Amino acid sequence: MTLLSLRDVTKSYPVPGGGRQEVLRVAQFDLGEREQVALAGTSGSGKTTFLNIIAGILKPDGGQVLLGGRDLVGLTEAQRDVLRAENLGYVFQTFHLLGAYSALENVVLGMAFGPGPDPQLARVLLERLGLGNRLHHRPHQLSVGQQQRVALARALANRPKLVLADEPTGNLDPESGLEALGLIRAMCAESGAALLLVSHDPKVLATFERCQDFAELNQARGEVPA
Questions:
Q1: Mean pLDDT for the stretch of residues 205-214
Q2: Pairwise CA distance, residues 102 & 64, whole Å
Q3: Which helix (H) or strand (E) holds 77?
Q4: Residue 157 maps to which CATH number?
């Protein structure tokens, strides 16, 4: 079954002089339940904007974004927040961990926006990701790879239907990056979550059965007059 469906989605921003810069124009994109898909593209091509619209962080100028049959475009910001908390996990490129809190606390706090905090589940996830002896370490006490595992645990903590991953291996060396990718894919498969990952790394992209060129998907026209 289709989990995510986008139709005629556009997004632009104002530029000096009164025109607008169109950064996103996607006629059609579909993702099935439990499917794992990679989007290939260079930095600045609009991939992060695409993910943020799917997550409901940004609202498109037009089009339809259906997640589990509900159109995010027609929802209020508060309604999008609830839908995101209940259905989505997001692994950001820079992790966005809270520096004043431990690994365990970062995951538990992420649960507050969904079904509710579950410290035991947070602990189990971190242990499964090899961080059983780092539960009470703060982000600055963890390696980059360990920080990414905390971010993955947080993304999976609310048992999402869809996990979005924005260049999740970009801050890791090649060997650690492929190891982290394997963890992300395995954990998504185990939990039954679909995965949509964006990357410019050929080695990462080569591991996916379905890999789509974002430049072909995004037909943004660039700067247009007002």
A1: 95
A2: 38
A3: helix 77-87
A4: 3.40.50.300
